[in-house]
Specification:
alpha/beta; Arginase, Chain A; eight-stranded parallel β-sheet; globular
Length: 288
């Protein structure tokens, strides 16, 4: 396994790392664009070509340590994959480290969220996504990317941001007061504080990369027009990290395209930004 961002071994050893990163290269239920199972190597390559000083937070968060765990490669069935992810997430949470996940398509989040819900009382799941993903079942299984947060909507406090595509069957599962449709938040900022006010203290973050506009993130299975821009997303997420206790996150649905490096780089930068926000006041990472 390659070191995170090509950094020295001392920052990647399990015992020294504040953060765990696990890839779940599963693409078994995607129904249009394929390739999310090929995302992690492209992500790692982009990380290795990224500057590790973050201007915004004046930090080098890699110094807090990031350990890459073995991939979860269960693909016998969607149900088996979710079970394997759930078991691994439960074990990872017992370490006390900050645990993060990388897809794969969005069905990988189901098992992770289930484990975090059991660990943290009154958990908020914050979903950034183009799609509602609230179907109870799709293609004969509840463990489908189109059902990624259906279970979360029933067991946790779900807040949805950037949604701009859904089926009418999902309306019965939608909490309109906690769903911020892309068309309603376009060129607005008041929704940021409003949405944060509806979150509990502990927040699990799941980011489907198609929340971004396809002009900057074309490498997804189902790119939807009208998405969010880079600065809107990171400004919002920094607010969330400052005001709430983000207990973990996943990033899903990168489907790398040959000759298209920018989306891979955006994904790497986003992951690093999230760690920079999480450990913003950590003395180890701060530049004096």
């Amino acid at each position: 396994m390659r070191n995170f961002a090509g950094i020295e071994d001392e920052y990647c050893a399990f015992e020294n790392a504040a953060t765990l990163l696990q890839s779940i290269p599963y693409d078994g239920t995607s129904t249009w664009g394929k390739g999310a199972d090929k995302a992690f190597p492209a992500f790692l390559e982009a990380l290795e070509n990224m500057e590790l000083y973050d201007i915004e937070t004046n930090s080098e968060v890699y110094k807090t340590g990031v350990h890459i765990l073995p991939d979860i490669v269960e693909d016998e069935s969607p149900e088996a994959m979710v079970k394997a992810v759930y078991q691994s997430a439960k074990e990872n949470l017992e370490t006390g480290k900050f645990t993060t996940y990388f897809g794969g398509e969005h069905s990988v989040s189901i098992g992770v969220i289930r484990a975090f819900h059991e660990k943290f009382d009154n958990l908020t799941v914050l979903q950034l996504d183009a799609h509602a993903d609230l179907r109870k079942e799709y293609d004969g299984t509840p463990f489908n990317h189109a059902c990624a947060v259906h279970e979360a909507s029933k067991i946790a406090n779900l807040v949805q941001v950037g949604i701009r595509s859904m089926d009418s069957c999902e309306l019965e599962h939608l909490n309109r007061k906690q769903c911020y449709f892309a068309q309603d938040i376009y060129q607005q900022t008041s929704w940021m504080d409003d949405s944060i006010s509806k979150m509990t203290e502990n927040v699990y973050l799941t980011i489907d990369l198609d929340v971004f506009d396809p002009s900057i993130m074309p490498s997804t299975g189902t790119p939807e027009p009208g998405g969010l821009d880079w600065y809107t997303v990171i400004s919002y997420l920094r607010k969330v990290f400052k005001q709430k206790n983000v207990v973990g996150f996943d990033i899903v649905e990168l489907a790398p395209q040959e000759g298209q490096k920018a989306p891979d780089f955006l994904t790497a930068k986003l992951y690093y930004k999230l760690l920079s926000y999480k450990f913003e006041k950590n003395e180890t990472s701060m530049i004096k």
